Amino acid sequence: MKVIVIVVGALACSMSVLASSQYQQASRFVPHLAPRFAEHQASHKALVTRNDSGEKNFTHNEIFNLQKKFLDNFIAPNNAIQAKSINSSLLADDVQGRVDITRTFDGRELNTEYLFGLFANLVTSGTDPDAFSLLGIPTAYEITHFAASQNIASASTRFQFFFQAINATIPLQIQTWNVFNPAGEISMYDATFTGWWQWAVDLLLQTASQKLSVAEGKTVSLPETETYLQGKLATSICSTAQKYCVGPQLQQYQNASQCFNYLTTQTRFGEAYELGRNTVLCRMVHQNMVPIRPAVHCPHIGPSGGGYCVDTPSYADTVDANYFSNYKFAYGNGSLTG
Ligand SMILES: *[C@@H]1O[C@H](CO)[C@@H](O)[C@H](O)[C@H]1NC(C)=O
Ligand SMILES: *[C@@H]1O[C@H](CO)[C@@H](O)[C@H](O)[C@H]1NC(C)=O
Ligand SMILES: *[C@@H]1O[C@H](CO)[C@@H](O)[C@H](O)[C@H]1NC(C)=O
Ligand SMILES: *[C@@H]1O[C@H](CO)[C@@H](O)[C@H](O)[C@H]1NC(C)=O
Ligand SMILES: *[C@@H]1O[C@H](CO)[C@@H](O)[C@H](O)[C@H]1NC(C)=O
Ligand SMILES: *[C@@H]1O[C@H](CO)[C@@H](O)[C@H](O)[C@H]1NC(C)=O
Questions:
Q1: What keywords would UniProt list here (predicted)?
Q2: CATH number of the domain that 297 lies in?
Q3: 114 in any annotated domain
């Protein structure tokens, strides 16, 4: 069904391109936007340099080794060891991190949980028979692009993630900008999944659909697969909620069936980019952290989303945000402004 909708959309798009070719070149800008475009072109631009006072200049090899040290610890089972340390010595106390498909994360303890605890999948490796996740465990990596300057590393890394839910390993490419403080700890990181992420998620769902079809002996469509997975995830998240989020301060749902109902009928499954929005996929991410610090993470899997599984900020506010504040990073004051 999805495929058909996309094809129809592409046809409509190419028809409008044909239709617009009859207009003259001069009208290619929407009229009321044209003056603003001209204004933008004419505005003064000034280069403001990065303030790197108090930072250290590493050699290229030193930064490469720092990057490698982080990645070695990101791979299972080392990530579980880091997660158990609570405050990873690889991260600065005031580390700021952003991951495009989720959110922003402040401080060493929270980042230790999200960078290491999350992918160690501690919840699903436990003994709870209801535990279920679509997250993968990183098992290998290869740095495919790398450039370093002063204390910044820009890299692209191909990871192999094992997805227990479909019993398969899928490669994922992730791009990162990392900044290291003078102690060699990561003080800022900006991670983006490439455009292949959507394809990876689609592949995951298609593979699940195929495996389900084989198991059921009949065709299980993609929407049916999503419904099935949403039910499995809801059961897992609710089991975690009922086990760890107890007492008046932490309780999120009245009981397991109200929880299940909420997550299957009042919460959407989520798109590939919505792992930090009001979705079941977001609560799947956060269920992994609940056993570590229930007081902090219970609200994230509850109906409110606790500021992490919510539908704000908007797309534009997310992209326009200048999140990094520790000191000047690679935007704003390292670039042309005005
Ligand atoms: C640069 O950063 C240092 C340390 O954070 C600060 O003391 C100094 O005032 C900054 N300089 C400028 C020009 O902003
Ligand atoms: C680091 O290198 C930059 C660029 O060469 C230079 O401007 C800066 O003074 C150096 N900083 C230190 C602490 O050596
Ligand atoms: C981790 O760091 C936080 C903040 O610095 C601190 O409050 C907490 O006690 C630390 N936890 C451990 C186990 O070191
Ligand atoms: C997972 O896949 C491997 C082959 O890649 C197979 O040997 C194994 O039996 C599968 N496990 C399950 C539980 O299906
Ligand atoms: C669960 O909570 C809902 C909503 O309060 C209630 O209607 C239902 O009876 C409860 N179910 C059980 C088994 O306690
Ligand atoms: C860049 O510097 C200018 C002038 O010093 C300041 O007004 C602006 O807020 C800075 N921008 C960022 C993104 O830090």
A1: Signal
A2: 3.10.450.50
A3: yes
